[in-house]
Specification:
By secondary structure, this protein is of the alpha+beta class. It contains four helices and 33 strands. The chain has a five-stranded mixed beta sheet with strand order 16-17-18-19-23, with no helix packed on it. The termini are far apart.
Length: about 500
């Protein structure tokens, strides 16, 4: 990509009103502003230079649910808003754009198919909040890092086929070598080896073998680390810190060291100083190293001269994410030039859906009807559905149909179990909120009974002419209503009125 043809996307997590700003890298002029965006660190991505995706900060906590916005870069349309079960922190796309992974503050991880939006699975990946996640270049592995310093490597083959959320069969390797929060994960591959690098607030940067999960090297720094970036050509590693310094070290791949623990400050190739706050993001353009900081500035560096070429002020808040995209992706094409995006995206499912009948059955049909016997030759391109085929085969008493029925029932049972657990958790949360509201109402009614308000005209609590469960109104204002709450195993009925609450226990709820 030639110089002068790139744009810089800058995002903060301060407020949705701030939004994203897209600037020309060379001039610093604002090209475009996208409203309604506040993304957490590692929460802003570009998908195939066609879409921007951002996980939105949720100030009300994970239980309030979350949203992931997706914008088409060359179309002036509102974002595609997907609502998730939990607020998402970091998100990551596989390199081919097939999968999207998201990490929640609860430690749960979610995996979607981008093209159809299907939620493939969600599982408890960590005990603490997930801080960053990244796919391997071939999309076969997913690496996650959490607030307690734990790093896990997951098999994508097992995750995409996982039937029971929480299964450990997809966990290939894990490590708790870091003693504090993971701040960044980065994949580095060359011809001879594949490694990944992790940084942490424990002031260490660790280099791992991607295949075996083995720790190769530990670099110790004087302060906590917040971001890492590797030049794949020069093999230079740029490490951002909490005090605003950027350390520059050479990444030694394939060299066996006698001591795997080294003091990086003694072997540093240089240091970049220009920020007054912690480094929050690092990225490359065609000509510059770009850094962002909590001091609300973005710097473009000449790496060879160790000097700042240009500085942008982002007065609306600390920058949490940086992206470099081609300016051509932002152009509004004329009618005769307009082409549709070849890559399609869909709304992401909030809840997992039961596997369709066609999913497991096609595999079974291939395995059971691969025989040359004409009796088992079935044309799947006909008008009949697989379910009708299964019914016909079941009437014939074939073992293939029986196994298909068993596996289908198992899929539905697994899905129903997962959804039941989620509904039970939501029920507990709603019960707690309702009890809080009732307590506040009782306190308010006590204040209403104070001497200052005793002369107020008493209102009817229950109207004899109204059917049970219908609100009683006087002068168009709500005076009483019935509220049924399921607590434990019994149904409780509460009468809400200006005079307070009365509880009436109903029959056992089966």
């Amino acid at each position: 990509m030639s110089e002068g043809r790139e744009a810089l996307v800058v995002c903060s997590d301060r407020s949705l009103k701030i939004g994203m700003t897209i600037r020309d890298i060379e001039t610093g002029d604002q090209i475009l502003r996208i409203p309604s965006c506040a993304a957490s660190p590692h929460g802003l991505l570009c998908l195939r230079n066609q879409y921007l995706a951002a996980s939105q900060v949720n100030r009300h906590g994970s239980l309030g649910g979350g949203t992931i916005f997706m914008w088409a870069l060359n179309k002036p349309h509102p974002p595609l808003r997907s609502y998730t079960m939990e607020a998402m922190g970091p998100i990551s796309f596989s390199k081919d754009g097939v999968y999207l992974a998201g990490g929640a503050p609860s430690g749960n991880a979610y995996l979607w198919e981008v093209a159809n939006g299907r939620l493939l699975t969600f599982w408890c990946a960590h005990y603490k909040s997930i801080k960053c996640m990244v796919f391997s270049d071939d999309g076969s592995l997913l690496i996650t890092g959490s607030d307690d310093g734990m790093i896990c490597i997951w098999s994508m083959i097992s995750l995409s086929e996982m039937e029971d959320s929480g299964s450990v069969t997809s966990l290939l390797h894990y490590s708790s070598e870091h003693k504090s929060s993971i701040t960044s994960l980065l994949i580095v591959c060359d011809v001879t080896s594949s490694i990944f690098v992790s940084s942490s607030l424990d002031a260490t940067c660790k280099i791992w073998d991607l295949i075996s999960g083995r720790l190769i090297q530990t670099q110790v720094y004087p302060v906590g680390l917040t971001a890492i970036l590797v030049d794949p050509v020069e093999l230079l590693m740029f490490v951002g810190s909490v005090d605003g310094r950027i350390f520059v070290n050479r990444l030694e791949i394939g060299i066996v060291l006698e001591d795997p623990i080294i003091v990086a400050e003694d072997r540093t190739s240089g240091m970049l100083k220009g920020h007054n706050g912690a480094i929050t993001a690092l990225t490359f353009s065609a000509s510059y190293l770009i850094s962002a900081s909590e001091d609300r500035t973005v710097c473009l560096w000449d790496v060879n001269g160790r000097v700042i070429i240009r500085r942008f002020d982002h007065k609306k808040g600390p920058v949490t994410n940086l992206l470099v995209i081609p300016k051509s992706s932002l152009l509004s094409l004329s009618n005769h030039q307009r082409v549709s995006n070849k890559f399609r995206i869909s709304l992401l499912d909030k809840y997992p859906q039961p596997d369709s009948l066609s999913k497991g059955m096609i595999t079974l049909l291939h395995s059971y009807f691969s025989s040359n016997d004409d009796h088992f030759s079935i044309n799947l391109q006909g008008t009949k559905s697989l379910y009708q085929y299964m019914c016909e085969l079941q009437q014939e008493g074939t073992p293939a149909a029986m196994q298909m029925k068993v596996e289908t029932s198992t899929d539905y049972r697994t899905w129903a179990t997962r959804m039941t657990k989620h509904v039970m958790e939501m029920n507990k949360h709603l019960q707690s909120r309702l009890l809080d509201l009732m307590q506040c109402r009782l306190l308010w009614s006590r204040e209403a009974d104070s001497p200052a308000t005793r002369n107020r005209k008493k209102l009817k609590i229950e109207s004899p002419g109204k059917p049970k469960g219908e609100a009683t109104t006087i002068g168009g204002q709500l005076q009483s209503a019935m509220l049924e709450v399921l607590v434990g195993g019994s149904r409780r009925c509460y009468w809400w009125s200006w005079g307070g609450f009365r509880r009436r226990d109903m029959q056992e709820f089966g």
